[in-house]
Specification:
Helices cover about 35% and strands about 20% of the residues. It has about 500 residues and is of the alpha/beta class. Helix 5 crosses helix 7, helix 7 packs across helix 11 and helix 8 packs across helix 9. It starts with a helix and ends with a helix.
């Protein structure tokens, strides 16, 4: 847990002196992960709603303040896991990146189920983070959020909506897209929606608004637009970003680029999925500018400028203090359901590449394993991993651009290039990954270190000491789907021999 991040909020610590029980939905999401430590540090007990407990990790110092419940808001029966004696709650559930064409229907069902259950609890207030609504004709994404807002507003509790536009912060989708475009393209041929105006807001300020709204009676049964002080076009945002990074960039706007071409442009240049790119393009054609309200004055918040938000994001990146990233969302890859469905590696009907080697320094080897991927790479034949990522992107996969959120920390559910972390158990020296690349089947990659058993000779030699030794196991498992899957395995088998043997040598230090 990032304690340095929490210190940013000491200026309004104990704004509510009473200890409250707060419901936090979307606790594994980009916003939820950042709001959670602030709530706890301010004395509240937090009930965290997650679809899969295996994805949820938190600082053990906060264990007494957190209760984790598994809830699927599309299944009303699971909502009974939420305690009745909550004082207030946050609704932070969105499906913008969903691959489903029916995401609007699912968002509506989730909101109705949530409202109906919360009506039976003691909750005094529900706070919802939505999107700014400026026009009568909205994108599917913004229209769905407005519909959710209307549904939740009909509950028996006090309801507060905070409407935000572009959120700028380390790991946010908007920040990472702007970063990809500016740092990769000296010259950009862009669509005309880059002239659309928006009012970006720093993630720090979003968390401030969310926290200070909590059980504040002056915010009950009302909606507020929240944004920073700057109103900018997307072109201006890109150029200001480039200036901060000391990069010269030229942007040429062509009105002939259709929404479909614009979506492909974002998909191939940035780390977003195609479904997210489509939703972003549809939303970016609509101006998102805050309506004037007095919430900043009411809550005593002075939002950061766009430049300050960018600089703050890079400070967190340089300090390795990225608390959450949009890339770690399950729907940024292939898995759209529980990780636990994949954590048991199958044996029957699978092809396996098993390798093992003796090692002496288990801690050093474990450290190499925990640094794998991202900027570190895969230790051997990185150019082949890069080619595989490029091919995956061509076929609509995630490619290698997601990288990893932290250079040295891994948690269950994190992204790791085109893999998903199923299990990161450093204590038991095991890392299990699941492939999210496009494949005619399913693939797992496992690293495991085990201590060698004492030899018979060492047991018989009383008083003799023997240096502890360990063995590193590296196993790639592929469960093919039909004939195509089998042909795929045999076609890449020569590369596996070259890549996996070299990777094992590098990781083990041999």
């Amino acid at each position: 847990m990032n304690f340095k991040y929490i210190k940013n909020f000491t200026n309004f610590k104990k704004s509510n002196e009473l200890q409250m029980k707060i419901l936090l939905t979307g606790a594994t999401g980009y916003i939820g992960k950042r709001l959670l430590p602030v709530l706890i540090e301010n004395g509240h007990n937090v009930v965290c709603c997650v679809r899969d407990k295996s994805r949820f990790s938190y600082d053990e110092n906060f264990e007494s303040k957190i209760r984790v419940v598994e809830v699927d808001f599309l299944n009303p029966d699971t909502l009974n896991n939420i305690p009745k004696d909550i004082d207030a709650g946050y609704y932070l559930i969105h499906s913008m990146t969903s691959n489903s064409k029916d995401f609007e229907k699912y968002e509506e069902m989730s909101a109705v189920n949530f409202r109906n259950y919360i009506n039976t609890t003691d909750s005094k207030q529900i706070i919802y983070l939505s999107g700014i609504v400026n026009e009568s004709t909205l994108s599917k994404h913004l229209s769905s959020r407005k519909n959710v807002e209307d549904i939740l507003s009909k509950g028996k509790y006090n309801f507060t909506t905070l409407r935000a536009g572009i959120i700028i912060g380390s790991g946010s989708a908007s920040f990472e897209i702007i970063r990809d475009l500016v740092e990769k393209l000296p010259v950009m041929i862009t669509p005309k929606w880059l002239l659309t105006k928006s009012q970006p807001i720093a993630i720090r300020d979003v968390i401030s608004f969310l926290f200070k709204t909590l059980l504040n009676e002056k915010t009950y049964n009302n909606s507020f637009d929240i944004g920073g002080p700057d109103i900018l076009t997307y072109k201006e945002m890109l150029l200001k970003f480039a200036k901060i990074r000391k990069l010269k960039r030229k942007i040429i706007i062509l009105p002939v680029l259709t929404p479909r071409l614009s979506s492909y442009w974002l998909y191939f240049v940035t780390s977003v999925s195609y479904s997210l790119a489509v939703n972003l393009v549809n939303s970016m054609k609509i101006e998102v500018i805050c309506k004037d309200n007095k919430l900043k004055e009411l809550l005593n918040i002075t939002p950061l400028t766009y430049e300050q938000a960018i600089e703050s994001a890079f400070q967190k990146i340089e300090e390795h203090h990225i608390i959450s990233s949009w890339k770690d969302s399950l729907i940024s890859g292939r898995i759209s359901y529980n990780l636990s469905n994949h954590i048991r590696v199958p044996e029957n009907g699978c092809f396996k590449d098993k390798r093992q080697t003796e090692i002496q320094d288990a801690e050093e080897v474990l450290s190499r394993i925990w640094h794998i991927g991202g900027e570190t790479g895969w230790y051997y034949a990185n150019f082949l991993w890069g080619i595989r990522g490029f091919v995956d992107k061509l076929f609509g996969g995630v490619g290698l651009r997601r990288g990893r959120t932290s250079p040295d920390l891994l948690n269950n559910g994190d992204t790791l290039d085109y893999w998903r972390v199923l299990l990161a158990d450093k204590k038991n020296m095991r890392l299990l990954l699941f492939a999210e690349m496009k494949l005619p089947g399913e693939a797992w990659l496992e690293f495991r270190i085990e201590k060698n058993k004492p030899s018979d000779k060492s047991r018989s030699d009383a008083g003799a000491s023997e240096q502890e030794s360990y063995k590193l196991y590296q196993t790639a498992t592929f469960r093919p789907k039909g004939l195509l899957g089998r042909l795929y395995w045999y076609s890449v088998l020569p590369f596996h021999f070259f890549v996996f043997s070299g990777m094992l040598r590098k990781i083990s230090g041999h």
